[in-house]
Every structure is written in structure tokens, then in C-alpha cells.
Amino acid sequence: MKTKMMLATAGIGLLLTGCSGGPSTGDVEQALQAATDQMAQEMAQMGMPAEDVSFDVHSRNCAEVDGGRAYDCTIEATLSDGRGNTEEIADEIRMVEGSNGWRVTR
Predict the structure, then answer these.
(1) Measured between alpha carbons, how far is 106 from 15 in angstroms, rounded to an integer?
(2) No. of H helices and E strands in the chain?
(3) Whole-angstrom Cα distance, residue 89 to residue 76?
(4) Which of the four pLDDT bands, split at 50, 70 and 90, describes residue 15?
(5) pLDDT of residue 23
(6) Angle 41-45-48 (CA atoms, 0-180°, nearest 5)?
(7) Could you give the 3-state DSSP secondary structure of residue 106?
(8) Strand runs (DSSP E) across the chain, as ranges?
(9) Where are the domains positioned within the chain?
(10) What's phi and psi for 62, nearest 5 deg?
(11) 39-62, pLDDT tens digit by residue?
(12) Strand partners, 97
């Protein structure tokens, strides 16, 4: 479980760029899920097992930065591994919107 939670936290650090209005809670959940899924795929390619993780964002507070091209968000969320294990997290992330939607950049 701890390995998977570390994977999820590490997945928050993927980099991409873009611009638009602020992200919704659903946008944040989708971006976190996409980052975590990408990290799990990379680990699987290296022969390292990875479990499925899902996010339930309870709270987000986003502020426009970088002239409106990005948003810094403080989030609180529950991570679930599909086996009944959960972990509460609080983190700060940067979100940007590109042609494929919102992405976590840090």
C-alpha cells in the first residue's frame, strides 16, 4: 500500500503546459488519475507491480498564477487502492490546461 501511495504522490509531478480558466474539482481528480495511471504504466514496463489507485478530491482551492497560464491548487483527497485501503492526503499542485485537458505539472 505504501508503495502505491508513494507512486500516486510521485505521479503528481508530471510536466505539461497550457492555459485557460481555473480547474474544477473533477478536473483535478481526472488530472491526478491520469498522472498516477501513467506512472503505473511506466513501473509495469520496468517489471515493478503497481495497483490501481483512485482519487476522491474533497477540497480544492486554486489561485491563478503565471499571468493566468497556470493555477496553484491546495487539495485534500482520499486515495483508495481498490482493496479497501485508503489514505488521506493534503498537497499543493500546479495545474495547466493543454489541448488534451488539465494536467498536473508539480
Answers:
(1) 7
(2) 2, 4
(3) 6
(4) very low
(5) 93
(6) 90
(7) coil
(8) 54-65, 70-80, 86-98, 101-104
(9) 2-104
(10) -110, 140
(11) 888 888 888 877 778 889 988 899
(12) 102
